[in-house]
Every structure is written in C-alpha cells, then in structure tokens.
C-alpha cells in the first residue's frame, strides 16, 4: 500500500484507536478528504469490508474556545440518532488528544449530496420531485423542533432562554467592530437592531435549533428526501421560530423573489411557495406563526451583519479578495437590509 497521508491525523494511531473502540469498522482504511464542514478536517474512510464512514476533527492551530467543538457535534448526532432523527450513525468519540493531537469522532457515511445552488438542484432533483423534497426539508425541521431536549439528553446544550436577545447583542457588536475595517456603515443596521430589540416576541419552550438549516446542510438522497442533517456546529437551545425564519428565507413566494436571487437552490420551478411550507410546519408542530415576519426580518438582518464582517476582512486585507466581486458583496448586504426592512413593514401594517 502506498504511503497514506491525512492532514491532522496520525493514521496508524487513529486506526488502532478505531480497531479498539469501533466494532462496526475494520481498519486499515482508504482515506479520502471531504470538502466543506466549516474547515474541520473531514475524511471519508473505507474499511477492509468496503464499509464507509466519516471522521472529523478541528483544524490545526489555535482555536476560539467554542469553535469547532467536536463534543457538541458528537452529543447532537448521538442523542438525535437515538430518537430516529436523520443524522449519521454515531460510531465513536475520542477525547484523548494523545491519539492525533485533537478530539475527533467517527460517524456513519450517508449516501446523499447537499444542494448549494440552482445548478445542483437542476442536475440532481427533477422538477416533479421538488415538492416532495421541500416537504421533507420542512417536516424534518418540524420533527427536530418537537423533540424535548431534556428528554433526549440535550438539556445542557446551551442556555434555554433569551436566544434571540443574545443573537441580537452578539451580531450588533459584530457590525460595530466591522465598521472601521469595512469603511462602511448603514444606519438601517442600527435602526433594525433597535426595532428587533424593542419588539422581541416572547420565546416559547426552548428546542434544539440547528442554526444553519437548509439544503446546503442536508444530504439529499435519490428519492429525493433528507437522508441526514449535518454540520451541527452552530446548534444550540433556543427559539425554534428563529430556525424556521432562516430556512423559509431560502424559499420564494413569487417570481420577484426568484428574480432577486436566481442562484439559490430553490429558485427553480416546482418548489412550493414559502407560505405553503410555513403552513405545513405550523400544522405539524402546532406553533403560532403570527410573528413569523419578525423572525424572517431578524434573519435577513443577521445575514447582512455576517456578510459585513466578511466584507470587512476583505477590505482589511485579512482575506485575499482576488476574484471576489466586492461591489457585488456590498450589494448583497444592502439587499439583505432591505428585505429585513420589508419584513418589519409587513409587521407594522
């Protein structure tokens, strides 16, 4: 066998650990790097019996205290998997840094692919199956939001109360810190922040919130339905309607919405309108969606803030802007703030 190299992994030590701790797999493995997953070092493993699995560890180097927290991801997939929720099978978690320099975990490999843009949807999902896929996405989110975190072992995942309040504080601080390096401010960012603070709905019962739920973080199978939900790094306990607002913002209500973002994975014929999906979620969970525009507006505002931070890093030279359309990025920030404003205006009518 030729020399096997996997960034961040001592292959022989990891394979010995797997041999001792994961009865489902038989080392040695073929190692194949998988892209994506917020820069975690992720590899597909193929064992001696031809069975596939996935291994993940944080990137090398110093990390922020809560960044790339393998134990959180492990807790989520092992606890959720036990309920029948679609996540990869949890095989083993190594808390000893002596094996390969960092915590890591091994999970089952799920056949499926994420959808990041309209072209991928066009290639992989026939038009007459897109309603089925959209329903599966919303039903899966609804199924997550009816689970009681205390009953499934996730009651300590995070603070239960004040989810949106904490987000507003964190992200407004981020906008403020990015103004100088970005050389750009927008009064709407501050006015919207104040509006969302002043009009915050009372949070209902805390549930597990994914934080970044959409086709881009799901593995879609051939049916096509959601075979597994992945990338739980932003998951916490909090207001499930904040999760729902984020996901529904990825769907269109009419042709104007589609024209505004033609590259989105849902900007193709065959998907149900956003309002239909919202009604389906409400029926499945029993939740009142009267304040849905609040959560949709909040998520548009948050998107603007996140992109403002990205723009600031480009402008400060912290990231190479070669080949990046900075004017286009600025326009996306403007658009997100405008969409947040529109959501607020709908609430005020």
Key phrases:
Phosphorylase Kinase, domain 1, 9 strands, 349 residues, globular, 5-stranded antiparallel beta sheet
Protein architecture, described:
This protein has 349 residues and is an alpha+beta fold. Among the domains are: 11-108, Phosphorylase Kinase, domain 1 (2-Layer Sandwich); 162-202 and 290-349, no CATH class. The chain is built from 12 helices and 9 strands. The chain has helices spanning 11-21, 70-81, 97-100, 118-124, 130-145, 163-182, 187-198, 240-248, 255-260, 274-285, 292-315, 326-348; strands spanning 30-34, 41-46, 52-57, 90-94, 104-108, 207-209, 218-220, 226-229, 236-238. Strand 7 (218-220) and strand 8 form a beta hairpin. The chain starts with 10 loop residues before the first helix and ends with a helix.
Cα separation of the termini: 69 Å
Whole-number mean pLDDT = 94
Specify the overall morphology: globular
Strand content: 5-15%
Number-wise, the strands total 9
The number of helical elements comes to 12
How would you spell out the order of helices and strands? HEEEHEHEHHHHEEEEHHHHH
Low-confidence stretches: none
The largest sheet is: 5 strands, antiparallel
* Rg estimate, integer Å: 21 Å
